[in-house]
Amino acid sequence: MSDTAEVSVPEVAAVPEEKGPIDTGAVVGGNAAPDAQAGSGKKSKNKKKKKKNPIKKIETYYPEGVYPEGEWMDYDNDFNLARTTDEEKRYLQRDAERTDHWNEVRKGAEIHKRVRRNVQNKLKPGMLLSDIADIIENATRKYTGAEDLKQMDDPKSQGIGFPTGLSLNHVAAHFTPNSGDKTVLKYEDVMKVDFGVQVNGNIIDSAWTVAFDPQYDNLLAAVKDATYTGIKEAGIDVRLTDIGEAIQEVMESYEVEINGETFQVKPCRNLCGHNIAPYRIHGGKSVPIVKNGDNTKMEEGEHFAIETFGTTGRGYVVQEGECSHYARNADTHTSPSLTSAKKLLKTIDDNFGTLPFCRRYLDRLGEEKYLFALNSLVKQGAVQDYPPLVDVRGSYTAQFEHTILLHPHKKEIVSRGDDY
Ligand code: HZT
Ligand code: MN
Ligand code: MN
């Protein structure tokens, strides 16, 4: 096992390379020129271009089926320290009993790292958000084999974990294009890219923020620092409110100047991280990003998505705009009376179970004119809607997020890569 005790500037094993050249354009907080357009100056011959790096199933790159560990981090609170070698031995034994489970989580994380490395050098002003979503989701489908004939009868075994969030500026979360959306990414935009991969229901939830204009650099730095602070603070028996307090203090220590106006970075106080359970993006615990008095503790073996949001706005989000994200309510079992709703619910159960999905995923399954049925399922409580979450118009929000595992002896930042 690799073991990095130092937390502030951890060493990260590079993602193993596929064959062939890869671009390494800086994207996160980068300074890409406004006129750096994709595809300029290309001669358009009628020849079909051969793809240099076709994406294959992840198993191809790991014939042994053993996936790389994430970044290890020591628990830094006294009560997490194993005081005797016997205790340490028992911890390792308990952890070894779940080796296959951890390996599945790491497989999803490895796919997440490869998918995002694949999209990061392609993101340019002028792109349609719907094309960005397609790049991310099609790469996830390829790596997970979601479209393999063998796997088609079991669509929930591995694949997309939840819809690709591509939320711009004052929109903090839960925007993904619905069909026909013509939104174009602009040089001035601040975009949160939040996507998920699942292997046997084990969801990797991780996100970063893209900005081309360097004036947002301090906003992004504040939120990245706040998220890593949350990760450092996390641990078995740690109170959720204490994590929120630490995150808030770091976030608020930053200022950012945008178009000549200076802002103290605020946390979006009603957004939070969460634990993750099999096929459930929210396992029931919420990790605040401000001190909120929640004395609930983290527990051994839990998975958490540690995410923070910083803003130049009010620091409070509301639901606004057309909904794209939905998920089957895991604990509502009432059967719809409407025939169309019954049919749609079967499509949802068969293809997503309790995993979040979006309207585009229903479209590609061949569902048509399903909105009335979908809305009726939401009204009955069988399906939960997750509309976009927005701060005040004109504000800018940023996000960083990692999935972590609370092993008995150490925590593992499983989604940590060489990019963020
Ligand atoms: C809901 C629907 C999705 C969970 C957090 C999140 C993206 O805001 C308890 C705490 C995907 C995820 C979620 F389609 N949400 N992480 N990444 N969104 S949440 C939440 O609803 S519930 C936070
Ligand atoms: Mn997320
Ligand atoms: Mn999350």
UniProtKB/TrEMBL annotation:
Annotated region described as Disordered, given as residue ranges: 1-54
Pfam families (UniProt xref): Peptidase_M24
Ranges for domain Peptidase M24: 104-317
InterPro entries membership: Creatinase/aminopeptidase-like (IPR036005), Met_Aminopeptidase_Type2 (IPR050247), Pept_M24 (IPR000994), Pept_M24_MAP (IPR001714), Pept_M24A_MAP2 (IPR002468), Pept_M24A_MAP2_BS (IPR018349), WH-like_DNA-bd_sf (IPR036388), WH_DNA-bd_sf (IPR036390)
Single GO MF descriptor: initiator methionyl aminopeptidase activity
Alphabetical GO biological process terms: protein maturation; proteolysis
Signal peptide (UniProt feature, chain positions): none
Biased composition (Low complexity): 1-15
Ranges of Basic residues composition bias in the record: 42-54
Keyword field contains Metal-binding: yes
Cofactors (names): Mn(2+); Co(2+); Zn(2+); Fe(2+)
Family annotation (SUPFAM superfamilies): Creatinase/aminopeptidase, Winged helix' DNA-binding domain
CDD domains attached to this UniProt entry: MetAP2
Cytoplasm as UniProt keyword: yes
Cofactor descriptive note: Binds 2 divalent metal cations per subunit. Has a high-affinity and a low affinity metal-binding site. The true nature of the physiological cofactor is under debate. The enzyme is active with cobalt, zinc, manganese or divalent iron ions. Most likely, methionine aminopeptidases function as mononuclear Fe(2+)-metalloproteases under physiological conditions, and the catalytically relevant metal-binding site has been assigned to the histidine-containing high-affinity site.
Residues reported in the UniProt entry to bind substrate: 174, 282
Compartments, as annotated in UniProt: Cytoplasm
Residue sites binding a divalent metal cation 2 per the record: 205, 274, 307, 401
EC number annotated for this UniProt entry: 3.4.11.18
One GO cellular component term noted in the UniProt record for this chain: cytoplasm
Family of the protein in this entry: Belongs to the peptidase M24A family. Methionine aminopeptidase eukaryotic type 2 subfamily.
Functional description taken from the UniProt entry: Cotranslationally removes the N-terminal methionine from nascent proteins. The N-terminal methionine is often cleaved when the second residue in the primary sequence is small and uncharged (Met-Ala-, Cys, Gly, Pro, Ser, Thr, or Val).
Protein name according to UniProt: Methionine aminopeptidase 2
Species in which this protein is naturally found: Huiozyma naganishii (strain ATCC MYA-139 / BCRC 22969 / CBS 8797 / KCTC 17520 / NBRC 10181 / NCYC 3082 / Yp74L-3)
Organismal lineage: Eukaryota, Fungi, Dikarya, Ascomycota, Saccharomycotina
Gene designation per UniProt: KNAG0C03360
